[in-house]
Amino acid sequence: MCLPTVFSVFHRTVWRKIHWRAKEFCFFDDYNWDITMWATVYPSFGRPVYTLRGPRTSAVHFGKCGLHQGQGQSNACIDNGSVNIQVDDVDKVANIRSEWGVHVYHDQAGYKAGFKGWGGWGDHRDHQLCLSFAQMYHSYSTSLAVLS
């Protein structure tokens, strides 16, 4: 189970808990922010975390180049479109219906202790940008020096 990759809603208490883990989040080596949340932030909550998700695809990964992935100091990563991911027609339109039921899955296995991520988030520029965003959207004053 993972968070939807299009949007998520958190109340202020959860938002603050997420921000308290900004350093762990920003330095975890995985380009999927939802996996990073499950591996670094949610375990610190000390109790189960629940999410809602629809039965169909909500987003499709459409390239191999992250913001800084595959770049040297000045080279750009080139994605020649060779991946060509197939998207079903039903997934090209809004696909959430009010008549769908809600299912609760108990005791979902999570990421084991020591999981280091799938990679793709190792560039120091990504880390610093992430920490800057964490500072920007903090609801109280904290310096980046404290986070780094």
UniProtKB/TrEMBL annotation:
Disulfide pattern: 26-130
One Gene Ontology term from the biological process aspect of the record: oligosaccharide biosynthetic process
Pfam families per the UniProt record, alphabetical: MGAT2
Residues annotated for Mn(2+) binding in this entry: 61
Keywords: Disulfide bond, Glycoprotein, Glycosyltransferase, Golgi apparatus, Manganese, Membrane, Metal-binding, Signal-anchor, Transferase, Transmembrane, Transmembrane helix
Membrane topology value: Single-pass type II membrane protein
InterPro entries cross-referenced by the UniProt entry: GlcNAc_II
Protein name: Phytochrome C-like
